[in-house]
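Dear colleague,

As promised, here are the two records you asked about, laid out in our usual form so they can be pasted straight into your sheet.

NAME FIELD: protein one
SEQUENCE, THEN STRUCTURE:
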Amino acid sequence: MDNKDIDNKDISQHDVASSQHTADGDAAAHAAMARKLHVQGDLTQEAYQGVENIERVTEHWTWTSLILTYFCLWSVYLLWRFEGSFERNLGPNIQSLFGEHSYLSTVSLAANIASGAVYMPLAKILDKYGRVYAFLAMNLITIMGTILIAACENIATYIAGIIFVNIGFSALSYCTDVITADTSVLASRGIGLAITGSGSIITGFGGAAAAAHAFSPGQNWRWAFGALSICVPVVGVVMGYLLFTFDKRARKDHPELAPAPKPHRNFMQQVGAFIVEFDFLGIFIFIAGEVLFLLPFSIAESAPHGWGTDYIIAMLVVGFVLLVFFVIYEKFIAPVPVADWKLLTTPTLLNIIVINALLSIAISTWDAYFSSYLRVVYGQSLKDAGYINSVTNTVSPFWTFIVAFIIRWTGRYKWLFFSGAVVYTLFVGLLIYFRTPGTKIGYIIMCEVFLAFAQSQVILGVQVGAVAAVNHRQVAAAIGILGVSGYIGNALGDTIQGAIWTNSLPGELKKRLPDDLKSQWKDIYGDIQEQLSFPMGSPARTAIIDSYAVAQKRMLIAGTVVAGVMLCLIALLKDIRLKENPQAKGKVIGEHHHHQQQQQQQQQQQQQQQQQQQQQQQQQQQQQQQQQQQQQQQQQQQQQQQQQQQQQQQQQQQQQQQQQQQQQQQQQQQLFGEDGGNTTDFMVLALQQLADSMDRIVQTLERIAQKEGIVGQNVKPPLPTPFMALQVLITCMAFWPPRSAAATTDGATALSGSGFVSLPSSPGRTPSPAASPAAAATTHGTTSPSGSGFVSMPDSPSPAPAPSSATTDAPRSAAVSLPVSPGLAATAMSSATATDGATSPGSAPAASPPGHPGPAVYSPRGV
C-alpha cells in the first residue's frame, strides 16, 4: 500500500492521560545511557529540542511561509507518487530485462522491511535535532537510491536502488506527515493531509503516461529515475531554507529559548552516545529477524527442495529467534529503546496500529501483480494498465478533501472510518467474482473506483486516529510506530502474496500449458514479455490467463478475510472529539477556525458562568425567602402557641370562675334552697335577720321596762338609734335595683309592677299574701297603705293583727313590709306624719294595736 497509509493520529482524553508517562520513561532511559557512557550533561534536556524548534517556527513565520512549506510537502508526495508509478509500471519490465519477473514480491518485501526499520531512529532525530535535519538527511538517501536505479546493470543493483528509494521516500513522507501535524490543528489535520496528498491526482494519469513514454522504443527508461534525482534536492533546499530561516529568527527574538550549551565530549564519546541513543544494535536485530523470517515465504518455491531446503528452514528458525530476542533486548537490555514502546499501552493508539497493519496486509495481498494481471488477462497496454491501476490515486484526493471537511465540521472520525471499511470489504469480495476470465473489464474498474473511495476514508481515519492519543511531543514517536506497523503489514502482505503466487502459478502453468510448452514453464513464469508474446485466444495464452485467475482469486480471498477482521476492530474503536485538543499552535491550518471556536467556547463559558451566577443568586434569594418564610412561620407558630396558651389560661380562669360560681350556687342552694336570689337579696336577707335579732332585743328591753314601771312616763322621744338607721338602709336596698317581674323567694312575693318586695319573715312568722299587684302588703296584721310611704311593722306578737284594706287604684308604692318592733314602727310612722303633714288620701290613719300602750316613751328608770 502507499506509505502514507502509516500516519497520524487520534486523541482521546483517556489515552492522553495514559501517554503522559512516556516522558518519564525517556528521562530514565537517557539517564541510564549517560551513566553507561560516562557522558557529561543531561541528554533528556535535548530529547525534545526539535519539537520546541518547530513550535517557535510556527509562532514566528508568516502565512506566506506556511503556504510555501505546504507546497514543498505537496511536492514531496508528488515525486513519491511518480516514483511509485514508475516502480509499479516499469518494475516488471526492468526485472524482466534481468530475467527476474517473479521476484516482484521479494523486492517489495525487502524494501518494506528496510523502510519500516528506519522509522524508529528517525523519530528520535525529528524530536532531538529537529524536523529540518531529518528532512535533509532523508533527501540524501533518496537521491542516492534514484541514482542507483538509473545506473543499475544487474538485478542486485536495481534491488539496492529500490530499497534506498523506498527508505528515502517513505522517510520523507514520514517527515512530511510530522510537519503536517506540527502545522495544523487536530480537527483540521485531515485537510492538511488531503492537501499534501492531492498530488496523486496528477500522477494518476501522468505517472502511467510518463512510465509508458519512458519505456517506449527509442527512449531510455533510466531518465525516469534520473529526473527524480534532480527534483528531490530542489524541494529539500527550499524546505531547509524556510525552516532554518524562521528558527534563526525565533532564536534572535527570544534568546532565552536558545538551547543550553552542550557538554564537552571527545569524538569517541560522541560516537558511542549516538550509537546507544539511537539503538543501532536493536535496529539491526529487528531488520535481520524480519528479513530472515519473512523472506523464505517468497523464495521457498524456487528453492531446490522447496520448503524442505536446509537454508529455508534455517532462515525461518533464526529469523523467529531474532524477533523474540529483539523484544527481550528492548525490554530488559537496551540502554535506550529504539522506540517509545510505552505508547502501545494506549488502547486507542494500539488499536489504530493493528488496524493499519491489517489494512496494509489486505492491500498488499493482491496489489503487486494487478498491473501484470491487466496486461496479460485483458491485453491492456502499459499505459492503460497504469491508468486502471492508478484509479485509487486519482479518485482518492477528491474524496479525501470531502471527508476531511466533514471531520473538521463534526470533530469526529470513527463512523467515517467504519463506513469506509465496510465498503472496502464489500468490493474486495466482489473482485473475487469479477476477477475471472471472461468478465468485462468495466466491472473491474467499477470495483476499483469504489475501493478508491473506501480506501481514502480508511487511510484518512488511520492518519487522523493515530496520534490523537498522544500529546504534541509524542507525535513523531506515534507516527513512527504507526509507520513500522504499516511496513510490517506490507511485508506480511507481500509474503502472503508471494507465497500464493509462487505456490499457485507454477503448478497451474505446468498443468494447463500445451504439452509442447510445458518444458518452458520457467521462462514463461519469470518473464512477462514472454507471457505477452502469445496472442490472445491461443492455447498458451489461455493457459496463462487461467493460471493468473487462480492465483488472483486466492490472493483476493486472503485480502477479504483480513479486511473483515479490520472491520471488526474499527467497530470497537473509541470515537474521539478532535476539537477538544488542537495540539499545534501559531500560524497553522485551522488556527483561525480554532481561534473562533475558542472564542465561542469562552463566550459560552462566560454565559454559563453568568447563568450559574444568576442561578446562585436566585438560589440565594430563594433560600432567603425560605428563611424569611420559615421565620414568619415560626413567629406565627409562636403567636399561635401564645394565643393557645392565653386561651388555655382564659379557659382555666373561666373554669375557675365557673367552679367558684358553682361553689357559690351550691352554697346558695344550701342556704336558700334551689331558687336562691341575687347578691342584693342576700344582703337584704342578712340585714333582715340582723334586724329581727335587734327587734327581739328591743322587745325584750321593752318588756323589762314595763316590768320596772318605766312605761307611760312622759319622756321625750328617743333619738334615732342605730337600729333605725339599719332599717332605713334595708328599706333603701329593697328599692334597688327595681324589679320588672315577680320573684318569689322562700315564701316572699315581689309583686309585678308594684315595686314591692316581700321578704321572708323571721323564723316562726308567716308572711302576708299579696292581694293584687296594686294592693298593700300585710304583715302580721299591720297594714301599709298603698302609696303612703309608710313601713308597717309588726307589733308585739301578743296582740292579734288588725284587718287591713287597700285601694286597688292607689298609686304604686315602693314600700317594703318588714317585721319591726312596735316602738320603731311608731317612731317611723310619726316621722312620716311629721314629714308629710297628712296621711295619704284614701287610706285610714294608723291606729295602735289593741292592748298596745301607744307609742313607746322612754323614761329613765327611777324617775
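NAME FIELD: protein two
SEQUENCE, THEN STRUCTURE:
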Amino acid sequence: MTEAVRRGSTLLNPNMNRRATDPENPETGRRITMTPRLATSMKAVMGTIRAHLGDTSSEAAATPSGRPKFDDLSQCDVSDADEDKLWQIEAKRLFDTVEDMSTELTFKSYGVFSQPDGTSLYYDELAELAEQILVNLHICRFDNELALLCSASGLVEMDAMGTSELIIKNRLLDNPKPSIGDGNHAALTKRYFATVDYITAVAARLAVSAVDDEMWQRRTLASLAKCSAKLKMVFSRGPREYVSRSIRSKQVLETEKQRKATEQRLRDMFDTSKAHAEKDMAERARDRGDGNVWDNMPAYPGQSGIDDSWYAKELDALLVKREDNSPPADLYLSHTAWGFRFASSTLLKMVYPLVPSTRPASQSGTDRFDLSTTTYQAGTSDNQFPIYMHQDRNGELHGSNQQEFIKHAYLGFSLVKQAIRGIRKGQKDDGQSFHSGTVITLQMQHISGDVEEKRDVVEPPKSLGLSSLADIIAVMIPLLCTSPDVIWSLQSFLKGFGEQFSIDAGDLAPRTPDFTAMASLRTRAFQAVSPTYLPGADFRQLSRSMLIHSGRQVSHPKIPTDTGAWDKVSSHQIKQVVDEIHQRQQRLAQDGRDWDIEETTVGVNCVRYVYTVLALAGLLVAGGLTAAFTIGDRLEGVDPFGIATFSWVLAAFLILIAKSVRVTEWPWRSFLQGRVTCRSLSELRAVTGANEQDLILYLLTNEQENVLVTRGPYNRLFTRKGDSGFSIDVKPEVRTLVAAGIILVKVALRNGSPALVCFDLRRVGEGRDTSIFIKHDGRAARENSSYICRYPPRPGDRIQDVLLDRVPVQLWWVGILGIYNAADTKVR
C-alpha cells in the first residue's frame, strides 16, 4: 500500500532547474515584477504537520504531546512510520510545485485518461471522478470535525459536520452507487491520484501566491499535504467501509457524552458540598443591596442611589475562587482546525463545479457549457475602476466591483496562463493533433497609468484547442480559481488568519497589478445548442459579449456594433480606434477638472469663445467707424455715420446670436466673465464640443464626487434626481452603460417572455463595494432599487429603445438568456 501511494504521489513535478525570475509578458514584451515569493521551508512545513507530537519548533507555545491528530491515517490501518513517510511525500510534492512559481503548471496523466471521439464521454468520466473526490473530501472533513468534537466541542462547526455526514451516509450507505471506472483498479487509482495531485497543487499555488507570509504558507501547505494523503488512503481502503467506522465512532461518542451529561446532572442535584454551594450562590445570588446580580441590576449606574462601585461588587459576587494548575492554553486545536478547514473548503469549492448541475434551467448534458470570467476597466480615464463578471458552468452570473476580490481573481488568471503554457509545451513535444471539441481562450493584459500601455488591452484573445481530458482538467481547475466561491473562501480564511494572529489586514492584501483579463472554457456541444449563437440574437454569453472588448464600450463611428464584425477587424485598426477614444476621454477629463458643478448647473470656462466673439464684434464696430471717418462727405446723400450705426447693430446682433446659439440662458455677467452655465446635457455638449456619450459616461462615473442633481427625461440611472436639476436630455447607449459599470442581462420570465434586468456595479461612493449574483431562478425587487425593461425591443418595432422602469413589486424569472449585447441601442 505504501509503495502504491508513493508512486501515485509523484505525478506532478515541475521543472526546478529554472531560477525564480520575473516572467516576461509575451504580448507586451515588458517584464512583470509580480512573481510570488515562497517564504517558508520544507522543514517548517513538516514541523507543522507533526505538531500533534508536541514539536515546539513549529508552534508558538510549548505544549505537551498527545494532542488529537487530524487527517489521521491510522484509521486506514497505516502505521505511524508509514503515515509520516506519506506526509513527507505529499509535502515534498507540494513544496516542489510552489518553489518556483513562474514555471508552467503540468498535469501528469501518464496516459490513463481515455481519449474518445467527442467531449460527452470526457465530461461523464470527469463528473464521476469529481463526485468520488467530493465524497472523500466530506469524509475527511467529517473525521476532522469528529476528532475536534472529542477534544474541544466548542470549536466544532456543527453545520459543516452535519452536512458532510448527511452526504456521505446518503452516497455510501443509504443509496450506494457503483464505483467509478471500468474495473481496471490500477488505471482507476492512477486517474484518481493524478487528479488529487493536480487539484492540491493548484490550491497550493493559489495559497502561496495570495500572500508571502511565512506562517500562512506553512500552515496552508501542511494542511493540503495531509488532506491529499488522506484522500488517497480513503480511496485505496474503500470509502464505504471507512465511513461505517466513522459513523460508529460518532455514535459511540454521542452515547458517551449523553451518559456523562446525565451523571453530571445527577451529581448537581444531590451535591451539597461547600464548594458546590458557593458556586451555586455566585450564579444565583439575589441578596439586595450589596450582592444583587443580573436579574435585579438597575438599568444604569446611579439609579436608586447606587454608584459605579456597585458594579464591582456584583463582579466580585460572580467570581468564584478556585485553584487551577492547568497549563497555558493550547492553541494547537484552533490553529489546526483552521488549517484542515482551509484545505477541505478550498478543495470542495474547486471540485463542486466539476459535477454538472441537474437543475432544469441549466444546459442539459455534461459537455454543454461556457465557463468564463472577465475583468474590464470601467469609468473614465481619470476615474477608472475594475469590474468582475463570472459565468459559471450552469450559465449563472456573478459580478463584483470589490477591489481586493478582483485582485484575488488575478491569481486564478495567472494559474490559467501557467496551465496553458504547460499544455502548449506538451502538445509541441507530443505532436498531438486530435481536438476534443473544447477550447480554452485567454486574454490577459497588465495596465499602468500611461496611454501607451493601455493600448495593449485591444489585443485579441488567443484560443487553444484541447486534445484530451487531461488537457481539459489542466485548464479547468485553474479557471475555477477565478470563480467567486473559491475567491470568497480564500478571502474568508485570510481574514480569519489575520484575526487569529493579529496581523494587519493591509499586510495580507494581494499585491497584484491593475489588469484586464478574459478566460473562457467552451465546448463545441454548447456552441451547437446555445441560443446566443442564433442569427440576430441580441444577447451573448459572457465570453462573446461586449464586456471583453474595451473599445466597443465607447461610442465611435468606426466601431462595428456586431460582435462578429468586431472580431474580424484587424488589431491595427482596433488600436487606432481605441487610441482615439483614449485621447478623447483624456481631453474630456482634463477639461472636466475646470468645470464648476453645482446642484442644477455645470459651469464651463469659455474665455476663448467669448473673447473671439467680442473681438469680431469689436472689428465690426471699428470697421464701421473707420469707414465713416474715411468716407466723410465724398458720397452725396450718404450719412457716413449710418455705416457706423449699422456696424454697431451688426456687432450687437453677432453677440446675441453667439450668446443664444449654445445655451438657452447666458447672463451678461457670466458672458463677460468668460463662463457659461449649462442646464442640460445638450447645452454642455454644444459648449464643450465633447461626444454626448462620453459626457454621459463622465457624469455617471463621477456622480458621487459632486453635488449635481439631475432631471429627465433620460436620467433614470442617476442617483440624485430632482424636478429642477440638470437635464439629461440625451439617451445613453447600452455600451455607454457597460463602460460605466451598468450591465443589462436578458432573462426569461415565468410566462416565457423575455425581459431585461439592470445591474449596477458602479462605485458610486467611497468604499461602496457591490456584488451581484444572478441565478436562473432569481428576482428583482423594488426595495433593491432595481430597474427592468419589461418589453425589450424586437426587430420590426417602431421604437428600438430600451425603456427602463422601476420594478412594480417583484419580478421573477426562471432562466438567464445572456448579457444584452445591442451596443448602440438607446436607453430611456
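A couple of things worth noting about protein two: The chain is about 45% helix and 10% strand. The first helix runs from residue 2 to 8.

Best,
R.
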